[in-house]
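Session log. Operator J.P. requested a structure for one protein chain; no other inputs attached. Running the standard single-chain path with token output.
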Amino acid sequence: MGTFQIEGGHQLKGEVTPQGAKNEALQILCAVLLTPEEVIISNIPDIRDVNKLIDILKNLGVKVEKLEKGRYSFKSDDLDLEYLESERFKKEGSGLRGSIMIVGPLLARFGKGYIPRPGGDKIGRRRLDTHFEGFINLGAIFRYNKEERFYGVEAPNGLAGTNMLLDEASVTGTANIVMAAVLAKGTTTIYNAACEPYLQQLCKMLNAMGAKISGVGSNLLTIEGVTSLVGCEHRVLPDMIEIGSWIGLAAMTKSEITIKNVSWENLGLIPNTFRKLGITLERVGDDIYIPPHNDGYQIESYIDGSFMTIADAPWPGFTPDLLSIVLVVATQAKGEVMVHQKMFESRLFFVDKLIDMGAKIILCDPHRATIIGHDFKSTLKATTMVSPDIRAGISLLIAALSANGTSTIHNIEQIDRGYENIDERLRAIGAKITRTEA
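Structure written below.
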């Protein structure tokens, strides 16, 4: 495992440019499988999870060419479908949860798709029922090898459009079903569809390829099936989760930071949620400017005087991926807040590491934590810890950058899965951080 050594307590200053969105990239990279023509994608983040998926596409036979940093060409005109049933794929596919989204495109174009039970963050139960129920509704036959934990769907006679109501507004589930439905015969309607910006981007890209998807941005999508798709060019949005991470880092370390080119119209409730924590952030063109919070920041309360609760919800609600950041930032706020993580039952379990650093946190149950802020009257203490998942990892890194002393974070590969060259970018604005490879 790699390690970060972080000397905390330093104010940072400078400009940062967010990477391309991880969650969008994983979707649109799978969409290149829907056409034999060339697809060019730019602003692809150089992170572990995305690079793993690109390797899987290469092994499947996709011709991949890196045109420049973050810009790639993909051509899926001669695929090796036997790879899907190989031991190599079972190993490689199980290490990346995003690999589940190759199933929809392959099912649509070739009549079959397989995937080993995918891995990813250990943040709780993340079921795949929505994906496969959608495929079955489109006419696919579901297969499951229990011994090898290997899933498959087959539709030798093609897929047929239908009306469906999703049991949850799953982002990856919606993406997978949409990619299957674009080449189905007839019209498909998907109600309770996810409508996150990443899903909107996927639909816009598919429409540019010749798909007929309407209702983009709403929870009711209508898809008229077409017989084939063509190539296109597409640019990935900036990563809203990373943008929120930089906001939290700036406040926690009392730093003056400008986040460049954030695509404000796609940030939803993120800016206002941080404002509820008392954090000052200003819109300057398409940038976010965060002044140094030398006097701290105070959490708002509700009109009746009760203390604030910040909870996750499907878009346009607050994204669950930023609740870990909200939690750690609240440890130095003035006031109290409850963080309610509804989606994953293990995502708050990293708070024991913050408690070891001196944070005042009460873990009420697996989904709720109450944080009593220090108001910077006492700093967090440096410690040694292990990153359990991507978002907890970056939260612990923020805590370490604000702490008194030198902290060590092991298993930083988890952070690298979602954040591109984070140590180099932090050093560029004054952070004292070094990386040691295993």
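Operator note: Residues 358 and 380 are 5 Å apart (CA to CA).
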